[in-house]
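Worked example 4.2. Below are the chains of a multi-component assembly; read each line carefully before continuing.
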Amino acid sequence: MFDAKIPAGPLNSKWEDYKGHCKLVNPANKRNLEVIIIGTGLAGASAAASLGELGYKVKAFCFQDSPRRAHSIAAQGGINAAKNYQNDGDSVFRLFYDTVKGGDYRAREANVHRLAEVSGNIIDQCVAQGVPFAREYGGLLSNRSFGGTQVQRTFYAAGQTGQQLLLGAYSALERQVALGNVKMYNRHEMLDIVKIDGKARGIIARDLITGELERHFGHAVLICSGGYGNVFFLSTNAMGSNVTAAWKATKNGAYFANPCFTQIHPTCIPVSGDHQSKLTLMSESLRNDGRIWVPKKQNDTRKASDIPEEERDYYLERRYPAFGNLVPRDVASRAAKERCDAGYGVGTSKQAVYLDFAAAIERYGNIEVGKRQMTNVSKEDIIKLGKEVVAEKYGNLFDMYAKITGENPYELPMRIYPAVHYTMGGLWVDYELGTTVPGLYSLGEANFSDHGANRLGASALMQGLADGYFVIPYTVGNYLADEIRTKAIPTDHPAFVEAENKVKETINKFMTIKGSKSVDFFHKKLGKIMWDKCGMARNEKGLKEAIEEIKALRAEFWKEVRVPGSADEFNPELEKAGRVADFLELGELMCIDALNRRESCGGHFREESQTDEGEAQRDDVNFSYVAAWEYKGDGQYELHKEPLEFVECKPTQRSYK
Amino acid sequence: MNLTLKVWRQKNKNDQGRFETLQAKNISSEMSFLEMFDVVNEGLINEGKEPIAFDHDCREGICGMCSMHINGRAHGPWDGTTTCQLHMRAFKDGDTITVEPWRAGAFPVIKDLTVDRSAFDRIIEAGGYISVNTGNAQDANCIPVDKTKADLAFAAAACIGCGACVAACKNSSAMLFVSAKVSQLALLPQGHPEKQSRALNMVAQMDKEGFGSCTNTGACEAECPKEISLTNIARLNREFIGAGLSSEK
Amino acid sequence: MKWSQFFNTSIGKKLLVGATGLFLCSFVIVHLAGNFQLLYNDEGKAFNVYAAFMGHNSLIQFIAWGLKIVIVLHAFIALQLTFRNRAARPVKYAVNPGNQTSSWFSRQMAIMGSILLIFIIIHLTNFWAKFHYGEMPLHTYPGQEEPLKDLYLVSQETFKQGWLVVLYVIGMIGLSFHLIHGFKSACQTFGLNHKKYNGLLSFIGVWLFGIAIPVGFAIIPVVIYFK
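Applying the procedure described above to all three chains together yields the following structure tokens:
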């Protein structure tokens, strides 16, 4: 049951070898095999399109009004690929190595290597679909650099790379819908998995418009529902992003791996007040040109422009001269928190640092002056030219910042602060992306597999599309080849009836509590506990408190929550209630996992485990494993350890100095 | 600040619907428009009433889900902005704000301010893609693309499919949406093999969905949160004429 | 796509509206050039000769009938589209943006077009119907053998009636407002939108078709009235 199924042989031939030997399904049989896909982000849409093209009968579900809305769309910066178009020494191995190192040696080598291998194909596929990546004047693709790497391997489409990639996958998906290979269920939410004889055989979904519960059969079920960052209430995730699908899988026997591995993104717009409903990311690409600093004096209340150069502390450049402002996200986030906690923060809340483009504007201005062979140029003109260049590179991000804060980032430095952004943890999957439940797969951010304890920038898009376009078409076939004799199971099977009754019961419970507090009240409270005690820095005492507080909050939720309206209509509050109920369970598991992992690694920083310089201190002897948790009833989890073996990348203390 | 809201309430698609007047109290100018709605909804829930249903998701101006017609403007008074990015700085204490759903026969109301935009998906199904199966692609740099055209294609591809163009158009025309996709794919060499059938089929589907026709008023361009240009509509017209005059089928 | 399908799509219909519209634009130039002869101080000789030529040349007559068909076609398809467009929004907004998002002219095409259509019908009864089917005074100019139908005299008499002058001026305001948007819009429908040419097209649309031509037409009855 608990076997990672990593093919034997040398690392760089494992995937080739797998593809050469996995079982195939002939076209006539594919027509009779049904696959259910939950979520239509990069992973789900690309999987649905690819499996539809192969001839499987696919049913895809999303809770939004269209598959094009999935939150992959909000990814800004770019997508990595080992194309080495820049001739700067990139290779599959280097992308693999950077990713494993960036993940602080908590990812599975074989999966990451496969990811690096197919990364180039993703770019080819997307360009063929008409994704308008940024190009150079010669008509070839442009690249930029991203955190945690020293080569330029990031492909991008201004600050809207995720949007363009998702629309590419979406259009491929809609093409299959038009061809009749995929049936799309918009505004539907999966509320349970149906298991028959130990295998995943379908789902119960709620039509969010009519409130009707539906039973859907599938020979396999793919969970591509994204991450669970919204457990913190405030995050860069969309309002609807949730863990429900993955959590129902967990409750049906799929293991949940490394739940405590959360990525806190260093450059987000700071919280402005209690009303805040979500946080907005400012792309990591800004760190290519922006310099991060705080005043050298504590509690400095001067305006940024009044603080002279020598009184500014460019703390990332000071602490990490080799990578400077482009250190990985976990390192940059912690450094910002350290400065703010020490009293150097800026802005009214003091929970922010500056991201300053003045130097870049001047540098670009001078380059333009040189390019255009201008003479006698005034300082103002240089600045003006520089601003034009910066506007071309980051215009949409600057506009977004201005709209939200009301400040002009071309004149004043941006104020930024870390925020929850991505979750590396997720459903445990083997090399084939299969969970511990046969027939149940998990792709993209919803699984745990590729990013270890910290994800490098521009790698999420890569993983989502790798899983959907290039991995699952092979691996699910390997499973379905043995299912060709299984006829579609009628949905009046007792397992479907039982699952539907369970869902109905839960919904009835929500509707009948009629308590005194809104769903958001509980969600905000949970978020606060998680952020304070299971956020950027964690310790034993805090985690133990958090577990108790979450238990108490959960009990209160089931007594006091108020869900207005009825269950047989469009009812967003009811949807939220279901999601928050699952977060209230997951949050506890995250704390349990964080408490168990008494080491610091990647985004998981245990205050008890740090070097003298305050850097994260890994403990490879005791914690070089994937923590896969099995659900054993309310608040009860059993830990299974998948040991991590490193053949090609020998774990070292990560250093970006 | 304190505001008066006149909000469209409609139980479901068969309900007649009506305006309801609500008070929004203690609203901070730092809030986004949707956060103001969160506050109002929290109040309604606490009073035992039904909160206002509205579509929203990413709240950073990219998913295209939010869709409110605010004081006569699709996505409110700021240019190039989605409802979720509109902040309360745009309003003054004591203002009355009228909020309506997108109005178009092709976008039926589901509840309150939520509408059904699946017509857009069906238009994309009619041809808003390049027919390339996974795994068939040549090396990405084998297809050089003129940077000017690539940039134009990107500008068109920035469409978020929110439907503000339809909402803003006095004819409920979806031409800006359709033209953005047709333009993006017509400008890129990858899109050329199917450009005729794409233009013809997408326009036919657009008509079938019951959107109006374009009278070139430019309201769509003015309200588009991604500032998609009217030149795309001209390009769609060219593509459509070219295809109509010369297609073999 | 078959022709019948092509011209039944929304864009196909707009193309017909645009093409007929541009044809009518070219017509108004010719018509105005001819009408200016009403202001010559030659007792209407040039104008009446011109009218006689236009009235009897078979090619011109063929075009003239074509013109009427074009007007009907233009109005018919445009109204059909207008009704369809109105039906595309069964529930109207309580608050409309007014001029914040589009120009007033662009939203009044159907109204202005309808005013124009009514004007054209009146205009045709006043002159064209009279010329071809009614009682016309005759005038023989020195050096000519045949008498000419004196359309010049008819126009002089017609425009002595103040209310008709006002009606004509209103008609021309309608024409102006219709063409300020109409010319540019037709170009856009044919896909003509390019930053190198947009300035020129706007100039032609506003100054030539929107102002010069309607003013030119309107001046004639006014001058005659005050003569």
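Take a moment to check your reading of the output against the notes. The CA atoms of residues 90 and 192 of chain B lie 44 Å apart. Strands of chain B lie at 3-9, 18-24, 69-70, 73-74, 96-100, 109-111, 114-115.
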